[in-house]
Amino acid sequence: MRQDHLITATQLSRADIEAVLDRAAEIDADPGAVADRYREAVLALCFFEPSTRTKMSFETAIKRLGGATTDMGTVESSSVKKGESLADTVRVVEGYADALVLRHPSEGAAKMAAEFVDVPVINAGDGAGQHPSQTLLDLYTIRENVGLDDLSIGIMGDLKYGRTVHSLAEALTNFDVRQHFISPESLKLPRSVRFDLHNSGAQLREHTDLEEVLPELDVLYVTRIQRERFPDETEYEQIAGEYQIDDDTLELADDDLAVMHPLPRVDEIDPAVDALSQATYFEQAHNGVPVRMALLDFLLSEGEL
Which uninterrupted H or E stretch holds 300? Predict the structure, then answer.
């Protein structure tokens, strides 16, 4: 199926995902083979919210493909500060670049932006909505460590506001995966997300206690409690720090468990866990470069996935 933009994980079939991951593995094994492929390409970075890994890995990805970036900069230093609409911003930026990476605090912003431009738009996070390129690097990390079928995956933390969770959970419905969602009652998956997952045939269970399910997990995907998403600071203070992983927690886990995190972390994973063989979150972050190189290769060379 033709995909001019990458807006949501629901666009991606199993064949789409495997094509990107296979290309990423090829690039990872021999990055020099694509070093000059997009010598004339320019990638526009439009980040209306802060970012470290996503922004830097996209910038690294296009540069390793031989291209360059043009950066909108901060909202405060752009014409957005003067009241320019998102539609006008992306229509202007389209004239400067061959593809556009957009992060925006409003859910649905990337979908709307894609309606105004002809160059590929990649959603780098839209509020509490989706983050599909993160999902692709998450799936690549899972595949490299434990495969992508006949798995039990636990997803823990902020399931209500976590866009990485929503994207990953949807994409996992393409595989033989049992999904366990672990969170406080107030941060459970939104009803709309649960409805979509059920409609997609997901095998899912919800828990408030990690210990009851940890021994059977192949992957534990930990997420940060996102202070910036809470409309009420009091609600955040009541929940912050409730779900934490340390050495003692992992005594119940299989030695081959892959502990993942989209980062940044605050206190949900003790730094002592970094030294354990189960910790894969820095590998996960590094995988953003080959995966985003592969994604850009598809979109820039073929205009489709």
Answer: helix 288-302
Strand pairing report for 42-47 and 99-104:
parallel
Catalytic sites, residue numbers: 53-54, 82, 103, 131
Residue that is written with structure tokens 């495997």 in the block: 18
**Tens of pLDDT, residues 218-242:** 999 999 876 666 666 676 666 666 6
Note whether 203 and 230 are within 8 A (CB): no
Scan for tokens 């506001």, then name that residue. 161
Partners of residue 260 on adjacent β-strands? 221
Under DSSP, the state recorded for 240 is T
Distances, alpha carbon 225 to alpha carbons 171, 186, 236, in Å: 22, 12, 8
Give per-residue pLDDT as tens, 179-196: 999 998 888 999 999 999
Positive/negative CA dihedral, 7, 8, 9, 15: negative
pTM above 0.70, yes or no: yes
Cβ–Cβ under 8 Å, residues 295 and 38: no
Task: Report how far Cα 238 is from the mean position of its chain's Cα atoms.
Answer: 26
Measured CA to CA in angstroms, residue 157 lies from 61, 107, 239 at distances of: 29, 20, 10
Rounded to the nearest angstrom, the gap between the alpha carbon of residue 184 and the centroid of all alpha carbons in its chain is 22
Q: Could you tell me if residue 74 is left (phi over 0), alpha (psi between -120 and 50 degrees) or otherwise beta?
A: beta
Beta pairing, strands 68-71 & 42-47: parallel
Helix (H, G, I), strand (E, B) or coil at 261: coil
Amino acid at 180: H
CA–CA distance, 185 with 153 (Å, rounded to integer): 19
The closest alpha carbon to 160, from 239, 268, 215, 84, belongs to: 239
